[in-house]
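The following record pairs a protein chain with its ligand, iron/sulfur cluster.
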Amino acid sequence: MDGIVFDIQRFSIHDGPGIRTTVFFKGCSLRCFWCHNPESIRFKPEMQFFPDLCIGCGACLAACPNGARTLRDGVGGYDRTRCRACGACAEVCFSGATVRIGREMAADQVVAEVLADRAFYQTSGGGVTLSGGEPVLQRDFAYAILARCKAEDIHTAIETAGNYPWDDLAALLPVTDMVMMDIKHLDPDRHRAATGVSNERILENARRLARTGKPVHFRVPVVPTVNDDPEAIGAIAAFVRALADLRAVNGAREVPLSLELLAFHRLAADKYRSLALDYRAGRLEPPSKAQMAALAGVARSYGVVLQGNY
Ligand code: SF4
Ligand code: SF4
């Protein structure tokens, strides 16, 4: 089974328990205007160009079959309307100024990379995490990787935004040990304004996921102008608390169901420039430590299990 990924990150410690290998799937159905991984949004391969790294060697001009590359005053340029993302220019660009994002891979190739670090998973309680983008939107590819990893006795996790028919996530659960799901806002209109889609299907999937008794970790990106206020965070914490109560009624009280607040940052600015994308969040100030601590206090007051340091 083949799919498209944009990165495989080894030794990750932020994508689930222990030391993990995180496989980043390419393609997402949301359009969060602050997205920290803009290279994950489109389903197709695409080109990044970092002018600051260009040494003006001209190798890309000779390599491009479509005349999409230029060289002026010793600095390479790029006409995206002519580019077909074939990657020929990236192969000859040794400075790293031109990079092709998006690798078509077979599930077996991905699993081979994951298995290389098996010893670290065993000693740390780690494993593999499928992230993105949205891994569930490449369901069969995701299933093939997760099933192979489970057969090798490796802990498996998914990071998801939750926006798809329930059956797509349900199909992956038998080979998934843990799910990390984003929640951005409980108000459908505010959610649509910030992400391009309503939250109704996401919240319904969160409810159904909680009822499965699978370990679930909800994550909230705290973004100025979107949800960095006590009302928005309180509403999300109340929602998560209700899911935990529902789970207790269903006899799965001991299975972890937690919440974490993640502060918006602007580290993605260079990536937006390299993809010629408009970075609408570029002027936002990241929340301060004090603000995050205050919002964490709000979440805690609802009796949720809160993870993270604030
Ligand atoms: S090959 Fe790379 S370094 Fe050379 S001109 Fe093209 S973009 Fe610049
Ligand atoms: S990716 Fe291919 S088409 Fe696009 S600029 Fe490079 S060589 Fe030309």
